[in-house]
Amino acid sequence: MSKPIVRFAPSPTGHIHIGNTRVALLNALYARREGGTFILRFDDTDLARSKQEYADSIETDLRWLGIPPDAIVRQSERFALYDAAAERLKASGRLYACYETPEELEFRRKRQLARGLPPIYDRAALKLTDEERKTLHEEGRKPHWRFRLDHVNVAWDDLVRGHCHVDCGSLSDPVLVREDGTYLYTLPSVVDDIDLKITHVIRGEDHVTNTAVQIQIFEALGAPLPTFAHHSLLITASGEGLSKRLGHLSVKGLRDAGLEPQAVASLAVLVGSAEAVRPVADLDELAGLIDFSHISRAPAKFDESELDHLNARLIHEMPYEAVRARLSDIDADLGESFWNAVRGNLTKVRDVVEWARVVRGPVTPVIEDKAFIAAAMDVLPPAPWDATTWKAWTEAVKAKTGVKGKALFMPLRLALTGLEHGPELGALLPLIGPERAKTRLSGQAA
Question: Is 90 assigned a ligand-binding role in the annotation?
């Protein structure tokens, strides 16, 4: 069996959102698991709307997710291939010229609906005589070009949806080439899949009807068909569809918010599947969990609150080596003992800044019972301090004052950190150190 060649084909007309990322991850991780090739194909034939800044952003997003492409191609550099394919289809009679204006087509559509007929193109252009075509040209009309569908039932076996079929007799012949000679999505996509030898087309279920049309174009060009997998789409927690135009859950926004790429990838891949949604730190492990037959056909909700929860779980289990360089970028002195002390209280790695402040100051202590804190200072253990110091100290305070439980621990936490919550003080106290601790217990900011 040949190794798979897959592609992710965004239009660089905006920042990709988490729904686009689901497509990219399923393609890239499938190729990764099977030793195949992952191609990034920019569908940038719309030269007016396509921007290099968005192409650069998409490449950055994929690198951040850990799935850089094995190759990059741009449709804007491949027009000669599309021109050649269009000429072949014209020569075979499958691509034919049409001269109707948008207004004329809309009038026909409304008339068909009024008569109870399906509003599909009536192929009037195929009935034009040479003289009529000449007259239209003399009027200055430029043709758009439609692909003549065979009115048959097109079927294929889909890796996600099982056996699929579309009655092409219920579809209008699709426009492949506009009046100005530019191409719509359908033809360049098929030509690229043929030229790049794409073996698997893995994409959202909104392309199912497109697939029937594209299968006919593959066949008209004499090319073998790829295997198709149409997965469920992601929607927002409130049920809205995702849109680049509206900026929903862009990968750039998630990255800027401080989320971990593994958390984003875990939720994007596992939501709406038979697998329990959980943080998966290793992409190879995540790739091993992909089973197209276990992806639900119902839209899957992408919940930002669930993403925050996954992100926190991932960080709580994250070893120091995985984060050392990032901690060093924040503060070179944030070492392993600090990370192990605070990671259980983090939602995002950058939250360490708050706990670094708690350790090093300045902290304004909160002291409500001065007598109790004074008694605690009297039995403060001598340096050096280690992981056993907190227990030894609190036992001594308990013996001296008779106070226990929350009434013992909370006043000490408030005096040392100024906060009612936080990491275990057994790990935090040695990081605060004797001098800062004494200053804070005396009521001074330090």
Answer: no
